[in-house]
Amino acid sequence: MTSPLDQIRQTLALSVAENAVFDGWSKAAIEAAAAQHDIPVEQALLAFPDTPSKMVDAWIKAVDVAMAQAAAASDEFDTLGMTKRIRWLIWKRLEIAAPAKEAVRSALAILAAPQNIPLGVKTGWRSADAMWRLAGDTSTDYNHYTKRIILSGVYGATLLAWLDDDSEDWAETAAFLDRRLADVGKFEKLKAHWTRQERPSISRFLGRLRYPVR
């Protein structure tokens, strides 16, 4: 059951990120978001984490929730194939994050700090898992893990491309994402022919996704 504080945190999280564009991931961003939602500041500060890394974590959780809600409300989503569902979900995440785009850049810097790397890995895995589950994946074997590792790489690389994309309607990001998903499709076809002795090098493949030729 969701507690009142959890509900407040979920209500505030996206607005906190938008205010972090101007105030950074700080108490001021929480206070500004509370004012926008007519939530008493005392309650907002009690409900929301008070460190930048935890604030970013709360925001990512809110993006996961908003993404799931958007998929449930979409008339299109269930008609798509698996790969197109994944693309739809990644793109929806970018749309949700767009009002806080500059804060996303600082959020990634926060998660890249040495002390926050475990949290960054955790949030990446959690979001990838949420996307695969929404897309209908039910795998429980080796594929369960490789799919989430690979999607984390695809989404992370796409997010970095998006942050530097000034093209109309994010056309460059769209093309970048389509290339990455095409790479994944090729990888899955090859993987089907590999024996146990010839299992794929996940680290090598993720390196290609993260540092691709654009």
Oligomeric state of the chains present here: single chain
Gap between N and C termini, in Å?
45 Å
Strand content: under 5%
The dominant shape is: globular
Helix percentage: over 70%
Main sheet overview: none
Q: Rg to the nearest angstrom?
A: 18 Å
Task: Report the average pLDDT across residues.
Answer: 89
Q: How many extended strands?
A: 0
- Which sequence of SSEs, written as H and E, runs from N to C? HHHHHHHHHH
Q: Low-confidence spans: pLDDT under 50, at least 5 residues?
A: none
Count up the helices.
Answer: 10
What structural class should be given to the helix and strand makeup? mainly alpha
Write a concise synopsis of the structure shown.
By secondary structure, the chain is mainly alpha-helical. It has 10 helices and no strands.
Task: Report on the architecture of this protein.
It is built from ten helices and no strands. With 214 residues, it is mainly alpha-helical. Helix 1 packs across helix 3 and helix 5 packs across helix 7 (117-135). The mean pLDDT is 89.
